[in-house]
Amino acid sequence: MIRAHTAATVREAEEPLLAAGEPLMARAACALTTEVARELRARGNRVSGSSVLLLVGGGNNGGDALHAGAHLARRGCQVRAALLTDRPHPAGLSAARGAGVRLHHVLQAEDVAGAVLDLAGRADVWVDGLLGIGARGGLREPLAGAVAALAEERAAWPVEPLVLAVDVPSGIGVDDGTIPGPVLPADVTVTMGTAKPGLLLPPAAGLAGRVEVVDLGLGLDALAPAACTLTATDVADLLPVPGPEDHKYTRGVLGIAAGSHAYPGAAALTATGALRTGLGMIRYLGPEVPTGLVRTRHPEVVTVPGRVQAWVLGPGTAPDDAARMEELAEHLGEAARTGVPAALDAGALALLHEETELTGPAVLTPHAGELAQLLTARGEAVTREEVSAAPARHARLAAEITGGTVLLKGATTVVAAPHGPLYAQHDATPWLATAGSGDVLAGVLGALLASYGDVIADGGDVLAGLPATLAATAAFLHGRAARLAAGLPAEPAPTAGAGVPITATDVADALPAALRTIPR
Ligand SMILES: NC(=O)C1=CN([C@@H]2O[C@H](COP(=O)(O)OP(=O)(O)OC[C@H]3O[C@@H](n4cnc5c(N)ncnc54)[C@H](OP(=O)(O)O)[C@@H]3O)[C@@H](O)[C@H]2O)[C@@H](O)CC1
Ligand SMILES: Nc1ncnc2c1ncn2[C@@H]1O[C@H](COP(=O)(O)OP(=O)(O)O)[C@@H](O)[C@H]1O
Ligand SMILES: [K+]
Questions:
Q1: What is the pLDDT of residues 68-124, one digit of tens each?
Q2: In 414-459, where does DSSP find H-type helix?
Q3: pTM score, two decimals?
């Protein structure tokens, strides 16, 4: 699991170590130096003779950069520091000066951005040490203008410089993953002690490049993360494997109320997603046309009501279909009465537009547009664009308002329960943006909820976070299946190529291949 902690938690953990004289900044600077050297070599450059520009702000983040600059200068790099502060870190400054780093007081220039660009043009590497966990809001001027100019000019450089961010790309929302102002996108972010939520959460995570966590001995492993990303190993621990004592009812029965006369295919896609993820049985309940489709596609699906361990409600339904909405409301009521978890998608999300209190465990699976509608209906007027600009914040808000767990779909899928860590899963490929793929996801999630249905129904507080973990697991499997269907390797690789278009059916059919990549 990749774990991220907030700026406040990091500070709290650092405090006693700093008081005890632990050389945290020296460790951070060494790690930065190693990473710059490694990246230079990976690009076929020699370390000695390479030119490095340090972008230095007024806090310890700038201190990290200055100390690393001193090391690099001693290793033969030509290092310049653009001091974008009147008060650079004193020890960092004297180390840099002592090692022969050329210091440029660019704030004295009439055109600060121009002065920085001038220095940047001569450098193979830009080290972004303007702002770290001490950021208060987006970058202020004149830093904002300089960074905006660098970001714009970078692509036009004949050979693109390597950009290495110290701790975080300066100016991102460290704790919430927002991008409140200009940010210089990094190739590599060397982050200190632990990852920060903004390095996992969209949209800021997309600006961090490869994230390298430097172990500073902060002892944060014992503390719950604020945000995390599941890896294949975590998913392996969660995926149920039947034992000899199991039968179809112990493996979990999933009730699916999906599809309508207008959108019958969603019913079949949801069922395929669930069957391919693995469970004991599906009970499908719906109108004639989707029922026929499900039966033809999956003769193993039962179409009579009965006891279930979880529900998927709503894929392929729309709020204007009053009769279908009434059925969904009844199923949701039954789920609440029996305490079994329910995944609510598409039309079923509109059930929560009213001031309904979710009394049973539920996972909502909106995309940004649906989340905006839900929040607006519940008195928090917001647009789709605003949700996309701050997905974690809005997913958490919807979880708090409804009492459910929210899986917010997107290129990075974010999962938020009312309490506990956020999950950010970036396992898919943009080829997954295709009609019906969300229905497959609902099926994957339904199968996992059904497998753990009895545990969740009995669980109480200890297992309060399980629906969120299962939702993140579903996003992982779904994303990985999409990658494999598109002809991409399970894990992103630089030489992977672009992949090929996929259909939602392809994604469901690739689930067994995705499961085979999980070490069990
Ligand atoms: N603690 C340690 O020993 C260790 C810490 N480590 C490193 O320290 C970093 C944290 O350092 P930090 O606390 O000094 O804060 P930092 O991120 O440099 O920012 C403060 C400066 O930014 C300025 N500023 C703020 N907001 C701004 C804005 N919107 N726009 C523009 N400026 C803004 C603010 O100025 P002010 O607002 O006060 O005028 C001040 O000058 C951390 O990320 C890691 O890299 C590692 O070395 C491990 C050991
Ligand atoms: N750019 C993207 N990159 C990766 N995955 C994406 C992207 N856009 C959407 N997705 C994923 O595709 C699925 C689309 O679901 P949804 O919007 O419900 O579509 P539908 O209603 O057609 O089934 C979600 O799992 C979402 O996370
Ligand atoms: K930084």
A1: 999 999 999 999 999 999 999 999 999 999 999 999 999 999 999 999 999 999 899
A2: 437-451, 453-459
A3: 0.97
Whether 122 is in the pocket of ligand 1, judged by its Cβ within 6 Å, is no
Domains of the chain: 2-229 (3.40.50.10260), 238-516 (3.40.1190.20)
Atom of ligand 1 nearest to the CA of 170: 17
Q: CA 131 to CA 167: how far, in whole Å?
A: 9
* Phi then psi dihedrals of residue 302, to 5 deg: -90, 140
- Torsion on CA atoms 182, 56, 215, 74, rounded to nearest 10: 140
Predicted pLDDT at 462: 55
Nearest CA residue ID for atom 45, ligand 1 = 61
pLDDT band at 461; cut points 50, 70, 90: low
Q: Hey, whose CA ends up nearest to atom 6 of ligand 2?
A: 411
For residue 339, is it left (φ>0), alpha (ψ between -120 and 50) or beta?
left
Q: Atom 15 (ligand 2): residue with closest C-alpha?
A: 438
Measured from the CB, is residue 445 less than 6 Å from ligand 2?
no
* Ligand with the closest atom to the CA of 170: 3
List, for residues 411-423, the tens digit of each pLDDT value: 999 999 999 999 9
Residue 8 alpha carbon to ligand 3 centre in Å: 17
